[in-house]
Fold:
Amino acid sequence: MRKILVLRGGALGDFLVTLPALALLRHRWPAAHLTLVGNATAAALALDAGLLDHVHSQHDARWAALYADAPLPPDFAAELAAFDLVLNFWPDPDHTLARHFREVSSPIFLTSSALPTLAPAAAHYCAPLRTLGLTPTSFHHALTPPAPGARLIAVHPGSGSRQKNWPLARWIELCTWLTREHRAELLLITGEADPAAATALAPFGTPAHRRPLRELVPLLAQCRFFLGHDSGISHLAAACGVPSLLLFGPTDPATWAPPGPHVHVLTRGPTLESISLADVEAALRPHLLPPAQK
Structure:
């Protein structure tokens, strides 16, 4: 293989669960030029890690031609025909996208649904590669090793949906408990969807509000623990090797929790409100002990 194209859309977490598939490709064909079209901001992390060589945004207008009935522009068709392998996870309900790749005579075209049908999600995105003899040994791929002597506890109280968020009042109580009773140093990660949380939690530690993903990676590597929900940032923390406690509901952790022994999931029912402050404190205590007492 000389040139490989991966089509993968979605948000940060959707991209990060694709890392094991990218790692399989890179390991099997280390000299191949790997290009991904998708979430360019998230995919930049894989560029930094050496898993990709080039990234295009899925919002570039020319990629819309793959869903049009008309033939592809000749220059675009010639560019696509130069790929030896195409791995597609974009929706293709009427097979228009697949037809265009057949017409440009792409030698190998592998496709699967955009949404996972296997658990964990990373297994779904590795599955098409089994036809090429590529079998994953792990569904976790590390972007960076954790830094030695990490001190901070990262707290991310948000996600892509309010239904996946623990009540802010309990995050405030938890941060109060961590800082007063355990003298914990907190890194408070919030995004543009979390203005109330950013304001409410700011007094408890070092704010990291709307920080670029490339800046969050070294920050997370300085953390000894991470607290969050079912979110892309939780997947990023796991990819940075940070031991994590994730509060889940209503989504299925078997599918969407980052795999790995360093990730622990807490769930109590169909909603996050079912998880009490006492539940989280009890789950955290073993991780807050000094190393000699663990």
